[in-house]
């Protein structure tokens, strides 16, 4: 027992010295960086893991192996594809002009926001993932820009988008009538699960009250609780219809449908007269605003007409993507070679830092995810140069400190401290520019600004942490004696 305790003490002492002492912490940080780099690299490019896993599985399942080894299986790595934009994946770019002749200038913005929400839901229901729907104002004209990446049936998508939003109020279907409708569907061969999925269409039936009778919907706040709520107001004809409906549905739910889908199902507490009502619930302010906008979208008829259509083929997108990827790889290699030639061992550290930076940025693009367009890839490639710029500022300051006669470790500390204000200010000014571009720019400009800003943030981390980690490791070795590795004569 004493021998076992002594062995454990030796092992604990080794790990404490190796990883938790002054030098050990640097080694531990380096190992963690390598581990993160490997895992994130496989996340970015899972095909390499999958290929190795398949080979190992074939070997483990061979007849010569024992049973428990044969039963083991190495799984494939988590595979999430990059999200490609319209110009890379192919698809359709549509431009619609909105007719706001029946809407006052004060309500135009809210009406367009509501119509945009409706179109996004319609396109999502059509099966297009992450459609880009933007509002563009040219003079007094409002336009909707719709990007449908990967859409196959363009004509059907155009037909569906162009329809004016429809809003209607529905009351609960009597149970006997509801059971009859479900039974009729099952008689036609529908399964219980399929019939259950249609519950939202059978549970409530349309009334004569529609969006054309709704004057407005707005966010309000309860004076007693301060909670957000939505107030609605009908015109004279709608007020009478609403009074009759609430009278016969007191204590029952009254569903509000937009484009055939329920957006709210409040319960009627009492007969409502005067054409004014309040929808209460555990709304956040954002949720209340969304509901009010959707109600206004159905209440305010905003016809839209297609004025431009541009189709981009996937072959063009694939060619553009291949060229962009090659440009990014060559750009990274040229910067790395230049840094090695100019800064020798420091340049090698910088090359590794840039490699780490690229892997992390691609991980963020995949994991967030960020929709990649040609302009977005251009922003990423540009950020590689910015990442190298931070290392250059640090290295030049480091060389100056070494030339002045300071020790290696002190020169590292001083170099990062003195270079940081310049690195910080230059990157913050670029980030502010990206913010302006993203806020005021169109979709193409926004993609460029987003990827550039992500690259800048990651480049700051790679320069100030990864590069510093390498220099700290060198500072604890005998390589500090060879000044020709660090300083030009």
What is the CA-atom radius of gyration, in angstroms?
31 Å
- Total DSSP E strands: 11
- Name the beta content range: 15-25%
Helix run count: 17
The CATH topology of the largest domain is Gyrase A, domain 2
What is the average per-residue confidence, as pLDDT, rounded to a whole number? 80
Helix content: 55-70%
Structural class: alpha+beta
Described by the principal axes of the CA atoms, the overall outline is elongated
Main beta-sheet annotation: 4 strands, antiparallel
What's the CATH architecture name of the largest domain? 2-Layer Sandwich
- Strand line-up across the major sheet: 2-3-1-11
Structure notes:
The chain is α+β, with helices and mostly antiparallel strands and 489 residues long. It has 3 domains: 25-79, no CATH class; 91-310, Gyrase A, domain 2, CATH 3.30.1360.200; 314-485, Multidrug efflux transporter AcrB transmembrane fold (Up-down Bundle), CATH 1.20.1640.10. Helices cover 60% and strands 16% of the residues. The chain has 17 helices and 11 strands. Helix 15 packs antiparallel against helix 16 (408-440) and helix 15 (374-403) packs parallel to helix 17 (443-475). It is elongated, with a radius of gyration of 31 Å. The two termini are 61 Å apart. The model is unreliable at 14-22 (pLDDT under 50).
What structural keywords apply?
single chain, 489 residues, alpha+beta, Gyrase A, domain 2, Multidrug efflux transporter AcrB transmembrane fold, 3 domains, 4-stranded antiparallel sheet, 17 helices, 11 strands, 60% helix, elongated
């Amino acid at each position: 027992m004493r021998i076992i305790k002594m062995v454990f003490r030796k092992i604990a002492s080794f790990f404490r010295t190796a990883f938790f002492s002054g030098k050990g912490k640097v080694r531990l940080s380096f190992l963690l960086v390598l581990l993160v780099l490997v895992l994130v690299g496989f996340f970015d490019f899972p095909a390499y893991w999958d290929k190795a896993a398949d080979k190992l599985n074939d070997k483990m399942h061979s007849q010569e192996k024992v049973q428990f080894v044969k039963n083991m299986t190495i799984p494939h790595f988590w595979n999430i594809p990059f999200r490609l934009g319209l110009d890379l994946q192919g698809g359709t770019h549509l431009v619609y002009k909105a007719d706001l002749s029946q809407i006052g200038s004060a309500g135009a913005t809210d009406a367009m926001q509501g119509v945009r929400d409706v179109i996004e839901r319609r396109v999502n229901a059509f099966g297009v993932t992450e459609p880009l729907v933007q509002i563009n104002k040219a003079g007094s004209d409002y336009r909707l820009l719709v990007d449908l990446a990967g859409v196959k049936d363009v004509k059907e998508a155009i037909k569906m988008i162009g329809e004016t939003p429809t809003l209607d109020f529905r009351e609960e279907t009597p149970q006997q009538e509801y059971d009859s409708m479900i039974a009729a569907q099952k008689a036609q061969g529908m399964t219980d699960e399929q019939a259950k999925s249609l519950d939202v269409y059978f549970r409530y039936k349309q009334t004569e009250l529609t969006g054309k009778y709704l004057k407005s919907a707005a966010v309000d706040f309860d004076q007693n609780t301060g909670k957000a709520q939505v107030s609605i107001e009908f015109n004279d004809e709608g007020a009478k219809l609403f009074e009759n409906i609430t009278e016969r549905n007191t204590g029952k739910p009254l569903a509000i449908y937009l484009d055939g889908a329920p957006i709210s199902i409040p319960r009627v507490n009492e007969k409502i007269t005067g054409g004014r009502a309040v929808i209460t619930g555990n709304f956040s302010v954002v949720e209340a605003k969304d509901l009010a906008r959707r109600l206004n979208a159905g209440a305010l008829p905003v016809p839209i007409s297609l004025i431009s259509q541009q189709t981009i083929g996937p072959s063009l997108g694939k060619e553009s993507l291949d060229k962009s990827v090659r440009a990014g790889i060559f750009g990274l290699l040229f910067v790395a070679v230049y840094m090695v030639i100019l800064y020798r061992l420091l340049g090698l550290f910088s090359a590794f830092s840039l490699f780490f930076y690229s892997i992390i940025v691609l991980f963020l693009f995949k994991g967030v995810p960020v929709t990649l367009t040609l302009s977005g890839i251009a922003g990423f490639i540009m950020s590689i140069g910015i990442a190298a710029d931070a290392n250059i500022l640090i290295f030049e300051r480091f060389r100056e400190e070494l030339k002045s006669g300071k020790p290696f470790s002190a020169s590292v500390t001083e170099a990062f401290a003195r270079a940081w204000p310049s690195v910080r200010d230059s990157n913050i000014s670029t980030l502010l520019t990206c913010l302006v571009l993203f806020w005021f720019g169109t979709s193409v400009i926004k993609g460029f600004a987003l990827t550039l800003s992500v690259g800048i943030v990651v480049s700051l981390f790679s320069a100030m942490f990864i590069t510093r980690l390498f220099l700290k490791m060198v500072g604890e070795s005998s390589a500090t004696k060879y000044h020709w590795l660090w300083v030009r004569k």
